[in-house]
Each structure stands twice: as structure tokens, then as C-alpha cells.
Amino acid sequence: MHMKTVLLFLVLVFVFKIGISQITITSADMPVVGDTLRISTTTVSPIDFEVTGEDYFWNFSELQYESQTIDTFVHINETPFTYNLVFVFPFVSTIAKAASPPEMPGLVPITITESFDFFKESTGEFTKTGFAAKINDIPTPRKYDNPELLYTFPLNNLSEADSSLSYWDLEVPGYGLYGQTIKRHNIVDGWGTVSTPFGSFDCLRLKSTVNVRDTFYVESYSIGYGVNRPELIEYKWLANGMAIPVLQIDNTNLVTNIRYLDSARVNLTTGLESFSINNEIGVFPNPGKDIINIQINMFEGEKIDCELIDLFGRQLIKKEIYKSDLRSNKFSINLSEINPSTGVYFLKVKYGIKNETVRVLID
How far is CA 350 from its chain centroid? Predict the structure, then answer.
């Protein structure tokens, strides 16, 4: 009898612990129209963000922000009318937000402004249905052939893995056709507590593997081909009632981007002309055109290895710069040597024991 009592007590303790530690994410935890969320961003993590487990504690409280942005969610009818016609409420989409333009390969001669992402929320899932933007100044909505599955509800530590396969394309006058295939695989790989500069939260950790393939058809040569981008791993820490992840880390073999919910901070150091990592390296101007300058504020070692890489991981420029060649810890790269197309690139700089990566825009 005594043994039964002890076992019952242990079971109750176990159930109580699980009950207070594990959470379930539902559609009620997703963003709603009118949500305005301040986000701090950085590229430097103080801990190994790949580590996970059950009842785990992730301590990101020492994150140092580099810049801040604001996500504002709106009704789709608040976006331009041209977009409403495609993302019809509530059948196709239920909510939208202004977003950074999609990263386009420099090979495609287009410019993108005024971009929106569109989403659909239901009791069973939250999906991205597509995006819309001014492409070469023309309002252009692009609905995915299949929605990109971001979350399946209810989401908890027992949820099975899920996946989606999406595609979109567009005609580019004078060029041909450009498109993207997006394959996403989501799995809950941990739960516990996460601490950020904004606070501590009971959370689920969702790991998403995203593979993007760019497809091209060059009309003048009647040639079509595809190129795989580096695999992206998204780590999201989800908490009840927070609308978006309280922390998200996006990682490829090229760069790590960190976003976390935050309050307003002061003394921001980033501006339109430069972008710095941990106040140790700066690139200006950014966007650049013919020449970009690299400033290393805390130089270590005798040599700098510098590489310019495109979205596909292809090396376009490789330079070795020795300390004796530096002037005020600054050197320049002449882009006219390779005549790069407009787009997003990555500058990898290695000096001493440091290895930094900076996102560079080229006009």
C-alpha cells in the first residue's frame, strides 16, 4: 500500500512538472490585424544555438542588438487594390505585413520595392500564401501555387514533422522567366525556457529546414536552368500570446541572422551608409556600386582574407591584404573587376581568429 502511494506521488509530480513546463501553440498565438511588434536584430550569438533538448534552458539574455525594425500586421484590404484581387480575403489570405523584398539573384535584371508578405491563418495551420511588390515599378502580386506551411496547430512537443513544397514565377521583360521552388520541413526539436534581453518565456523550439531553388529561362538563348541556394536552417522559439517567435535564428553556411522581440532601445549605431558587426567591422557605402570600403576597428593578426560571394555560394572575388598595406585599418574592393549585377552578396572577412560575414547590396 505504501509503495502504491509513493508511485502515485511520483506520477503526480511528473504530471505537474510537465504541465507547467510544456506549452501548446495554437492559432490564438498568431499575429492579428493591428499588431505592431518591435524587433531587435544582430548577427552574433553568445551561445551555441543548435543545442536543444527537453526542459532545456536557452540563455540568450546577453544578446547585443545592432539595429531595430518594426513588424506591422494589416488587413489585406489595406494593401494596394491590385494585390487584393489576388490575395482575396479570407479565401486566399487573412493578414499581411510590409516586408523586406525577396533576395533576388544578381543575374535577373529587376528591382523590387514596396514589398508585402501575405499569410492565411486557420484553426489548423498558419501559412505564407505569397508576396507582392513593385517589380521594376509595376505592382506585381505573386501567389504561391501551394502555400508555404509555417505552423500546424496544435503545435507541441508531441507534434509530428510536417513539410510543404511551393513555387512561384514571373516574366521579366527583355530577359525571360524567373522562378523559385521553396521546400520547407518543420519539426519541434525541443522545449523549455528561453531568456532574451526582453524577458524569459516558456517555449517550444521549432527547427525548419528550407531549401530554395532558383529557376531561370533566358529567352534570347532559349536556355533554362536551375541553381540551388545554400540550405537555410531556421530556429524559432515560440511562446504563448507573442504573435511571432520571441527569438528566431536563421543560419546558412554563409551568414547567421538573429531576430528577437524587444522594447525600444537607444543609441543605435547603424545607418543608411554602413552596416557593422559587433562594432568591429564596417562596410561603406552599402549599397555600393563601383567600390566598397571595409573598415576593421580592432585588427588582429598580420593578414586579412576577404571573399565576395553571391547568393549561390559562388566566390566572385578573393583577396589577401597584409597589415603593412592597410591605411587606418581600411582597405577597398574594386567591384568593376567583376562587374556584378544588382543584388545581394556576402562579404566574408577573416583576420586573426575572427571570421565575420557582412550582407552587401550592390546597385
Answer: 23
The SS3 of residue 227 is strand
- Reply yes or no: is the peptide bond before residue 90 cis, omega within 30 of 0: yes
Contact criterion met (CB below 8 Å) for 211 and 183: yes
User: Closest by alpha carbon to 336, among 359, 304, 363?
Assistant: 363
| Torsion of Cα atoms, 273 then 278 then 282 then 286, to 10° | -40
CA distances from 5 to 1, 9, 131, 246 (A): 6, 6, 59, 41
**Element housing 96 (H / E):** strand 95-98
Whole-number percent of the chain with pLDDT over 70:
88
**Cβ neighbours of residue 266 closer than 8 Å, sequence gap 6 or more:** none
The H or E element spanning position 6 is helix 2-21
The CA R_g of the chain, rounded to the nearest whole Å, is 23
- How many C-beta neighbours within 10 Å does residue 311 have? 21
Q: How many angstroms separate the CA atoms of 107 and 103, rounded?
A: 12
pLDDT tens profile 43-71: 888 899 999 999 999 999 999 888 888 89
pTM value is 0.76
Between the two ends of the chain, the Cα-to-Cα distance in Å is 79
Domains and CATH numbers, the chain: 21-261 (no CATH), 275-362 (2.60.40.3080)
In this predicted structure, the answer to whether residue 293 has a pLDDT above a threshold of 60 is: yes
Please tell me the distance from the alpha carbon of residue 146 to that of residue 280, in angstroms, as a whole number: 43
Question: What is the mean pLDDT of the segment spanning 226-235?
Answer: 96
CA distance 164 to 306: 37
Cα gap 223→264, rounded to integer Å: 50
Cis before 287 (ω within 30): yes
Position of cell 498558419? Answer: 126
Cell 513544397 belongs to 165
